[in-house]
Design brief:
Layout lengths: L3 E4 L14 E4 L2 E7 L14 H18 L7 E8 L5 H11 L6 E6 L10 E8 L9
Parallel strand pairs: 4-5
Antiparallel strand pairs: 1-2, 2-3, 3-6, 4-6
Length: 136
């Protein structure tokens, strides 16, 4: 039987919303959507997409590290944007934070995220062990 081990920071900014930051199930890590929110619950970069994206990836990286993984082990991302005009920046973010073979990816525009100041949210699936192998 595989146990689900909760992944969380201290403090946990998700606690007031009654949800987990993520779980490790064996060698698979599933993170809730991460956004530009500090561990203390403060929003970073209101009206600044680049600052929000940087904080979002910092949060993802920290949670993956706590779970025994890293950005190099990400196999799937779902990106939520409040403005698809930022799509070219998402491509640049992929190049900055990931390496080939790049993760599977879904990107969607939404009318709003959980808090009105947020412009980007990303949820992630990653490996804890093993390697990502290109099928070429």
């Amino acid at each position: 039987m595989t146990n689900a081990h909760r992944i969380k920071t201290t403090p946990d900014p998700f606690e007031p919303f009654k949800l987990a930051q993520g779980y490790r199930l064996g060698d698979l890590i599933l993170l809730s959507g991460q956004a530009a929110i500090t561990k203390e619950g403060e929003i970073v970069g209101a009206d600044d997409f680049d600052a929000q994206a940087a904080q979002t990836f910092a949060n993802i990286g920290e949670l993956l590290e706590l779970a025994g993984s890293g950005l190099d082990k990400v196999v799937k991302v779902t990106v939520y944007l409040t403005d698809m005009a930022n799509f070219p920046k998402v491509i640049a973010l992929r190049e900055k934070y990931f390496t080939p073979p790049y993760p599977a990816d879904t990107i969607v525009e939404v009318s709003a995220l959980a808090l009105p100041e947020l412009m980007i949210e990303i949820d992630v699936m990653a490996l804890a062990n093993g390697e990502i192998v290109d099928a070429e």
